[in-house]
Design brief:
This protein is an alpha/beta fold. The protein contains ten helices and 13 strands. The protein has a domain of 222 residues: Rossmann fold (3-Layer(aba) Sandwich), CATH 3.40.50. It is globular, with a radius of gyration of 21 Å.
């Protein structure tokens, strides 16, 4: 198929572009003018089209002649800072432009996949979530601009599916780790929590900061974060390789049309599983600490729908993520195109 990928220079886009090109698809990438990351793309034989999602003309030129679209591009926190107006222009108006251009392709368009996010939902109640999250168990109630504009994007896609019969699918990605990134994640580190609790004036916050400060001996240290009852935090993330496999399986699959799916790794992990692995890999000390006065991270995703409808079969668990990250950091692997060059 002739496939347009927006966000083609990102941690997901570059890797899925390489996979689709290797599988025989004709891949076109949509890039902003002067994108500093475009240099990692030419060896894969991609066609690059410059433009901005905020321009209807640019989007139409990129979409013309395509048979499928992976709309991965978005303004989000790590790429910013962005103003509310920029979030709206890129994530809402930009998605509208993509959908309008896709609709004009008519029967030529075989499939559009819209990348959304678990940031559309509130996953942090005071005691965590006891049951895995399904596609419908939590309402999309985000108020930060990234999550909120993605909610609007989902609604736009749903409108074009119902009103225009567009062959489109929404996929919600959980937190995504690219090449080597699991080793550097701040929430495994003492310094992150020290900074987060430093300015707390409430009693629970001050007590937690005191416990954290007692661990600080001037060295980099990892922490097994636990809730106030001593239960280790739990999170469900995904490594790029699993997303690439999943997107390739979903692309062009009629069973996915008009539906919403979650995509995550094979299993959630707990901090007492992840931190010792990373500490061993980096030769860093670690400690266990109960964090009172903060909503814990404690959730998992139910992947039943994706497994059933398009054979989603993630394989990269936390141990495999860490092992691959070490290989990447020691220049022993090119399994993933890095997020930044």
């Amino acid at each position: 198929m002739r496939v347009l990928i927006t966000g083609v220079t990102g941690r997901i886009g570059a890797n899925v572009a390489r996979r689709l090109a290797q599988s025989g698809h004709a891949v076109r990438g949509f890039v902003v003018p002067g994108d500093s990351q475009a240099g990692k793309l030419p060896p894969f034989g991609l066609e690059l089209v410059e433009g901005t999602l905020a321009s209807r003309t640019d989007v139409q030129a990129a979409v013309d002649g395509q048979e499928a679209i992976l709309h991965l591009a978005a303004a989000f926190q790590a790429g910013g800072p962005f103003t509310p107006e920029q979030y709206f222009d890129l994530n809402v108006k930009g998605t509208f432009h993509i959908l309008e251009a896709a609709q004009r392709l008519g029967a030529q368009l075989r499939h559009l996949i819209f990348a959304s996010t678990d940031a559309t939902m509130d996953k942090y109640p005071p005691d965590g979530l006891p049951d895995p999250i399904t596609e419908t168990s939590l309402p999309p109630v985000a108020t930060d601009w990234y999550g909120y504009t993605k909610v609007l994007g989902e609604h736009l896609v749903n409108r074009y599916v119902r009103a225009e019969g567009l062959r489109a699918t929404v996929v919600r990605f959980c937190m995504v780790w690219g090449a080597g990134e699991v080793l550097d994640w701040p929430q495994f580190r003492l310094a992150y929590f020290l900074d987060r609790f430093r300015k707390r004036a409430d009693a629970a916050g001050r007590a937690t900061h005191a416990r954290l400060a007692a661990l600080d001996d001037g060295r980099e240290r990892l922490v097994i974060a636990c809730d106030a009852h001593g239960r280790p935090w739990k999170k469900h993330c995904v490594e790029v390789r699993d997303l690439v496999d999943g997107l390739e399986r979903a692309l062009g699959n009629p069973a996915t049309f008009g539906k919403l799916y979650q995509m995550a790794g094979p299993l959630p992990f707990t901090w007492d599983e992840a931190v010792p692995l990373i500490a061993h890999a980096l030769r860093l000390p670690f400690s266990r600490v109960d964090l009172a006065g903060i909503a814990p991270t404690h959730y998992a995703f139910d992947l039943t729908a994706a497994r059933r409808d398009f054979g989603y079969a993630p394989r990269v668990d936390i141990r495999a993520m860490v092992e691959e990250a070490v290989r990447y950091k020691t220049s022993q692997s090119d399994a993933l195109i890095p997020t930044r060059i």
